[in-house]
Amino acid sequence: MMEKMHLLLTNDDGIDAPGIAHLFDALSSEARISIVAPAKQQSGMGLAITVHSPLRVEKREWVGAERAFSVSGTPADCVKLALSHLLPSPPDLIISGINQGSNSGRNVLYSGTIGGAIEGVMKGIPSMALSSYELDDPDFTLALPHILPLVHHLISHPLEKGTLLNINFPPREHAPNKGLKWTRQGLSHWSDNPYTHEQSSFWLGHKYCHHDEHEESDIYWLDRGFTTVVPLYVQELTNLREYEKRKQLFETSFNPPCEK
């Protein structure tokens, strides 16, 4: 009998959020599952790590899980601790989510959900991030039928090193889901204009800025009722076109010529 795959679940909404519970329910029949997730809300933390205070780890009871821990830090903290101290061996796959709210477009640059998955691929573990479209009262059950097939596909068809999958599920108004699209990351993002909450305090990011999206973008297909899957690549952060184009000009501009 084949041993069940071992999955590590994390998120940025916190270990008590409904999204990670639904994710566990979708996978627990076919996988051994460990959970290491933030003790409280960590949305918008990106790839941040905690360096100026100690991290506190608390063992949690989670029926059916191999182990569960909450961490007083970010999703990246959770994955770091899971791989270095909390798990007896590396998982076959890391899944971050299901996030409450879309991580389409340029929002990935801020997302703690994406940050947890990035930390996974930086450690050489296949990773994916899952997000529902609705920020308020999402219906996670609409995503559940697609999760296990996506996991099996990623396990069976490994990605290039440094690549994670960013998966977003469409708005409930488009239910049932029309299918899956392999897409590129779009351009839209949350507003940069804060608005006043009360005197001397402000809210950020509660208005969405839409761009004209190309037909290969995740947002284009989400708006048409499809689940979108984007292969995000973090192995090489250098703009190689600019590196090659400007290397000689830059170095000759700032370095004195060699004396003969």
What is the topology?
Layout: E1 5-10, H1 18-27, E2 31-38, E3 57-59, E4 67-71, H2 75-86, E5 93-99, H3 112-122, E6 127-131, H4 144-156, E7 163-168, E8 180-182, E9 189-190, E10 195-198, E11 201-203, E12 208-209, H5 218-222, E13 227-233, H6 240-254
Helix pairs in contact: 1-4, 2-3
The CATH first-level class comes to Alpha Beta
The number of E-state strands comes to 13
DSSP strand content: 15-25%
Quickly count the helices.
6
Strand order of the largest sheet: 3-4-2-1-5-6-7-13-8
Query: Class by helix and strand content?
Result: alpha/beta
Radius of gyration, in Å, reads 20 Å
Protein described:
This protein has 260 residues and is of the alpha/beta class. It has a single domain (5-254), classed as 3-Layer(aba) Sandwich (Stationary-phase Survival Protein Sure Homolog, Chain: A). It contains six helices and 13 strands. The strands form three sheets. A nine-stranded mixed beta sheet has the order 3-4-2-1-5-6-7-13-8. The protein has a two-stranded antiparallel ribbon with strand order 9-12. It has a two-stranded antiparallel ribbon with strand order 10-11. Strand 6, helix 4 (144-156) and strand 7 form a beta-alpha-beta unit.
